[in-house]
UniProtKB/TrEMBL annotation:
InterPro entries: GDSL, GDSL_lipolytic_enzyme, SGNH_hydro_sf, SGNH_plant_lipase-like. It holds the Pfam family Lipase_GDSL. Keywords: Signal. PANTHER family: GDSL ESTERASE/LIPASE EXL3, SGNH HYDROLASE-TYPE ESTERASE DOMAIN-CONTAINING PROTEIN. GO terms for molecular function: hydrolase activity, acting on ester bonds. The keyword Signal applies. SUPFAM superfamilies: SGNH hydrolase (SSF52266). Belongs to the 'GDSL' lipolytic enzyme family. The keyword Acyltransferase does not apply. This is GDSL esterase/lipase.
Amino acid sequence: MLDAGNNNQIPTLCRADHEPYGSDFPGKSHTGRFSNGKIPGDFLASAYGLKDLLPAYADHAVDYKDLITGISFASSCSGYSHLTALPLGVHNLDRQLWHFELVFDKMRKRFGLQKTADIVEKALFLISAGSTDIVNDYYMQPLTRAKYSLPSYIQMLLKNMEHFVKKLRLAGAKKIAVIGVPPLGCLPIDAFTNIPPFKNESGDPLRRECRDDHNSDAQQYNTNLATRVKKMAEAMHDLKIVYVDYYTPMMNMINKPYDYGFKTTTTSCCGTGAIEVGPLCNVASLMCHDHSEYVFWDSSNPTEAAYKIVAESFKDVNQLTNSTCQNKMEKNSHLPLLFLLLFISIKVIPAAAAAARPSAIYAFGDSLLDPGNNNKLPTVCRANHKPYGLDFPGRNPTGRFTNGKLPGDMLVSAFRIKDVLPAYADSTVDVYGLLTGVSFASACSGYHDVTAAEVGVLNLDKQFRNFERAFVKMEERFGLPRATATVGNSLFIISAGSSDMIDNYYLLPTTRAKYSLPAYHDMMLNNLDTLVKVRKLYKAGAKYLAIIGLPPLGCLPLDTTVFSQSSLSPSAAPQKNANLTGDLLRRECKAKHNKDATEYNAKLQVRVRRLMVAMPKLKAIYMDIFNPMMEMIDKPNQFGFKSTLEGCCGSGSVELGPLCNVASVSCNVHSEYVFWDSINPSEAAYKALTNNFRARPLRRLFPSSV
């Protein structure tokens, strides 16, 4: 009813971005609207003098002008129950609200917080849901009917509706219209998808009459909805909220079609008029000749002609505004509106499982994920100076230990959450930024507290305490349910261990005296357990966790430099893997240290599996960084690299942090180097790593969105 095309980029059957949908839309475009032309959101936007059409949030042509005059976040096949959206992989209400929050954040950055808040306060928010819940979830799912009686199912839906309205209120909404359900028993598909079949006197399955029992269910729902909305209006004095009748105008058209110019009311224009919807209504379907004579376009959704009448009947919406919407849809430009359109139309399509995208990304660990949390710490482990950041947008040295973006930035962009993953310590990050993800990582940190203490950076315990502070801020602004839901749908990433091995174990004789290498690995993994299981992430509500292993330590330029002489190696015989020239700038990988990394990674994979056994609600994956890095080093030409064992910065052997500075002579073509400094990869290498993460391990967590 209100989805203008938000499902077009989703891997779901619930899409209408193909012919014959849109046959009467301007330009005959199949935009994703489930009708032959415009839908109620378009008519209302035009009626209030805002613009001719209400675009989809997912429309790439949407600009800032559209954001302040209204867009639709609606997703066909969604509903008040999350189980309604889940089988088809469409956006549930929480996802739609999150998209609105992203829009709010964009507007805030462009226009300022006060102006954005004023726009939202004056805006009209429309919510339409319930039909798909009842038809797809209740009528067609025996398990749902076994769990709920119809009255109790209706109360569950209304409870979710009220909970959602409260979230909108927290987000600043002041004017909300909640639309009821249509006469469900009159939908052409209804008689075909319910047993026993209901036949009219002629017995013609293509000319069914309305099902009185399902219409009665719809009326029962609407009565309860109207009562609940009235109580909410009385309880929340700062909120104007009304119930909008969808049932009556539809029944008027069906009972008295000639009064509205219709001839056919119980079959649809597309195909047989009985079952065609979504992919079944396609270019091969036989179509009616005069679209305007039909109430229904497909077996679930009205025609443009019917939708126009429905939109004109929404007089109760005028109670919320300072203007009116006349029957002829006269334009009025006195009211700025932002349409938040959530739900939409009824679709009966076979279920297809699909995972949602993460709401946010929260990162912990070391330099691989640190966008600048060390910038204000009294530590030498900082990268907030040139030449770091030379290829970052704006050429800014943000504190990222590379020339451009990090894997966290690339992942948050790939999931279409935002462009970059900021540091928690970034002063420009507000509560809306927290809601979509930040990094708490601190370069030079590790699983062992001694590793961080050596250089005065944040250990994992301090990083988690910062996450707890962020959660409190989100709870205070958006409420506990919203904050908890965000955490539960977020991706948590941990990258640590490299500094533990190089800076602590290899370089500190006291550590090697205390631990054998296997015992040191076990200590690191036990600390990982503590972070995830004992008192940390899992108890905070984390459900999706990715843990990154160690890279090939023996191939890091600094490692081959520091441990080039056998006398410097704490755990190896004289090395045979140094090249014959002895050139510090052209070292070969140190096999022993690579072996140490592979042994740790093997143990880490076992520990990740054990974490999932111990915590059934947790989905955890191991992300391999060792093998992708080795592929780049062994087969550089396949990735566009020319130099694999030297850093781009300075001599390429020891420069890191303060030693990689504005006086360092850097390489000419940054993208030809696997490493940026003597430890950290270049942006080009990080991009190859991130693509590998997305193509392989992350598919197990979010198969439909990577």
